[in-house]
């Protein structure tokens, strides 16, 4: 993979994230590997795998990233099954 590092003379946008391990740099919505767990979105470097940021995900946060959509759907399905079995076992 090629590095996305740019010369310092061009400046750095405020929305850029940096990997302290390999100096990879990209916008927050760029090529970072994202995973969402327990209301937190984790950003990992695509080149070396270092976690560079963990940001809270709350109401009004865009969760259209495919990974976020997968985990949200998984969590909703799990909750539906859990509620179903709770009712079955409780009301027998």
Please, could you describe this protein's structure?
This protein is α+β, with helices and mostly antiparallel strands and 92 residues long. Strand 4 and strand 5 (51-56) form a beta hairpin. A three-stranded antiparallel β-sheet has the order 3-4-5. A two-stranded antiparallel ribbon has the order 1-2. Helix content is 28%, strand content 24%. The chain has one helix and five strands, in the order βββββα. It has one domain. Residues 5-9 have low confidence and may be disordered.
Care to give the gist of this entry?
By secondary structure, the chain is an alpha+beta fold. It has one helix spanning 66-91, and strands at 16-18, 25-27, 33-37, 40-44, 51-56.
List keywords for this structure.
single chain, 92 residues, alpha+beta, 1 helix, 5 strands, 28% helix
């Amino acid at each position: 993979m090629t590095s996305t590092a740019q010369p310092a003379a061009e400046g750095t946008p405020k929305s850029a994230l940096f990997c302290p391990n390999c100096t990879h740099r990209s916008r927050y919505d760029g090529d970072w590997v994202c995973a969402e767990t327990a209301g937190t979105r984790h950003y990992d470097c695509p080149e070396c795998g270092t976690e560079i940021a963990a940001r809270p995900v709350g109401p009004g946060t865009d969760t259209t990233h495919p990974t976020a959509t997968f985990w949200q759907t998984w969590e909703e399905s799990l909750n539906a099954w859990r509620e179903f079995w709770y009712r079955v076992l409780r009301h027998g």
